[in-house]
What does this fold into?
Amino acid sequence: MKFLQSLVQQFASKPIDWEELEESLIRADLGVPMTTRIIKTLQEREAWSVLGIGDVIKAVREEIARILPADSTPIRSANGKPTLILIVGVNGTGKTTSTAKLAHHLQVRAIDLNRPPQVMLAAADTFRAAAIEQLAIWAERLGVEMIRGQYGTDPAALCYEAYQAATKREIDFLLCDTAGRQHTKTNLMAELQKVKRTLAKLDPAAPHETLLVVDASTGGNALTQAREFHSALTLTGLIATKLDGSGKGGIVVAIQEELGLSTRFVGTGETIDDFAPFNRGTYIDNLL
Ligand SMILES: Nc1nc2c(ncn2[C@@H]2O[C@H](COP(=O)(O)OP(=O)(O)O)[C@@H](O)[C@H]2O)c(=O)[nH]1
Ligand SMILES: [Mg+2]
It folds into this structure.
């Protein structure tokens, strides 16, 4: 149920129950600091007015707008070199799907090039069964080249090779889809750090973007993942997926507030077009 619906049901015909309001805000995953501020703002107003649902919605909007930027920063193109985008995250969050969606977005989006942008994919999830084939299906549909290795290949070596190939072929954007197993996290972080170190040998600025894919419907888990990946890899932003499902999604506000990491793109379904650059207005409308 959407946050707004549940609030209207709870507060439409009776005075605000502060505990219930606090609970709904927490349930929407907005995080404790923001929830506390919203409640404080409203309680300060109560002295001079009778609060209604409209006041609640307005306070939530204002607080979110204070934290989130209005629009996301687009992917920048590295001058005359391939822009390397590393896609990371735990299993099942939507990395492979988002890699394909982002590739498509970059293909069709007008950027300051005089020709259609050239995109290439690298299947650097060499760990999970069928991961390479899954990305290969997308690559074929999108008509883009994909660099692949055997299962068990070192992802750092694969990304290195892919970046060399992309440079040689004058590719604009190289997207590397990585593995996301959960149970051996330390190994995963070490493996991804090695990918970054190895790429930096080819271009000190690479990877130009390191985007964490989080499933927005998983709330606090997404925040924990953002903390861990950011401290290991210094992320440049988030892709928040599955915003179509739960009527949640407040977690991107909590992540922005705690870690200063912006949501660059949102995923709202399983098809290639269920994807868009983050926009604050649309996001708040959907949340409420
Ligand atoms: N509803 C919904 N499903 C998504 C979204 N993004 C990915 N998925 C689905 O989530 C599942 C896992 O996605 P996948 O890309 O394989 O995740 P990975 O393990 O991180 O690579 C697949 O069934 C996707 O179709 C989204 O934005 N909305
Ligand atoms: Mg995958």
In short: The pocket of guanosine-5'-diphosphate (ligand 1) is lined by residues 89, 91-97, 180, 213, 241-242, 244-245, 267-270, 274 (CB under 6 Å). Residues 185-202 form the longest helix (18 residues). Strands lie at 83-88, 119-124, 145-147, 173-178, 209-215, 237-241, 263-267, 275-277.
